[in-house]
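Design job #97: recover the sequence.
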């Protein structure tokens, strides 16, 4: 798959992080494309199976949390990335039969396969990203409930646009994507009722060139702040000198003068809870989605970095006040999973 220079740079940062924490690539994990493994620490054995490359921000956030668990909780961690649906069951089986007690990953494209495979290993805990519910006895689920910081990001976009036209370039119209896109638009419209939106779906979870192309088209049409729901949009914003809101991870490094902030999904609370339950021998199938909410520490607004001084004080005050309301439980961001439309 063709990668942009920014996605390649992001991959370098991911790998650097992995090596710094003692988790390098090139282990013995049973994957058809790419694998990584940590040394046997004698702790809980945890494996991850990812459909997309490790550099894709969604799976990268899971990976980063598991690397942290290796460092702080003493688990053994191995992963397989770019696993196609045809190989998904085989990789899961080999981990389960290889003595791994907890297997995590993203199951959206291989949902039925993952559930069927997990059912065959009732003594192994499985926790996968999913848009539907858990399954007894051993299949837990999670999702990126980051609509709250997406709303805050929208408030910033609504205040920073000069054309009153903001854009979203997203993967596809599924609930997980729709709810953060709609929250972003709702936040923008709270502070700027004149906002017009342009929405594009690229039909893929990871296609940076296509995302960049869609972003360039929106910029040509007058959009001056874009929500980079997918990787590749920031590159277009840097080239055309417009503002960007990143997604899933802190992506300021990709465009320090253009990326203001963005919702960050922190999988550490979810990963820590799943490991705790398995180690205690009390794991049950459940929905871990609540651990992604801001109040649980599972999501937050990325630091402003160089924008700390550039972002107007009144905008920062608005965001701080709304953040306090969210954390106190006095304001709830609506969960709207309908397909967002361009105005």
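Job complete. Output follows.
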């Amino acid at each position: 798959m063709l990668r942009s220079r920014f996605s390649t740079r992001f991959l370098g940062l991911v790998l650097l992080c992995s090596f710094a924490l003692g988790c390098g690539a090139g282990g013995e994990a049973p994957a058809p494309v790419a694998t990584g493994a940590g040394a046997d620490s004698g702790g809980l054995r945890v494996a991850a199976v990812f459909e997309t490359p490790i550099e894709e921000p969604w799976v990268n956030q899971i990976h980063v949390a598991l690397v942290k668990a290796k460092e702080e909780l003493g688990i053994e961690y191995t992963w397989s990335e770019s696993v196609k649906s045809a190989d998904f069951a085989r990789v899961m089986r080999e981990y389960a039969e290889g003595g791994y007690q907890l297997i995590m990953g993203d199951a959206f494209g291989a949902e039925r396969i993952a559930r069927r495979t997990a059912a065959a290993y009732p003594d192994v805990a499985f926790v996968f990203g999913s848009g539907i519910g858990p399954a007894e006895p051993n299949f837990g689920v999670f999702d990126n409930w980051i609509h709250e910081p997406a709303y805050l990001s929208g408030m910033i976009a609504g205040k920073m646009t000069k054309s009153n036209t903001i854009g979203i370039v997203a993967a596809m119209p599924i609930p997980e994507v729709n709810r953060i896109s709609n929250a972003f638009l709702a936040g923008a419209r709270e502070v700027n009722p004149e906002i017009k939106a342009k929405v594009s779906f690229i039909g893929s979870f990871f296609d940076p060139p296509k995302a960049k192309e869609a972003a360039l088209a929106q910029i040509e049409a007058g959009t001056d702040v874009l929500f980079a729901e997918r990787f590749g949009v920031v590159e277009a914003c840097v080239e055309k000198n417009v503002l960007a809101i990143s997604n899933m991870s802190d992506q300021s490094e990709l465009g320090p003068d253009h990326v203001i902030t963005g919702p960050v999904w922190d999988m550490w609370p979810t990963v820590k809870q799943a490991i705790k339950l398995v180690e205690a021998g009390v794991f049950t199938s459940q929905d871990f989605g609540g651990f992604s909410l801001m109040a649980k520490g599972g999501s937050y607004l990325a630091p402003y970095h160089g924008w700390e001084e550039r972002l107007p004080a009144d905008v920062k005050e608005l965001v701080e006040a709304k953040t306090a309301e969210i954390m106190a439980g006095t304001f709830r961001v609506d969960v709207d999973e309908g397909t967002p439309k361009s105005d």
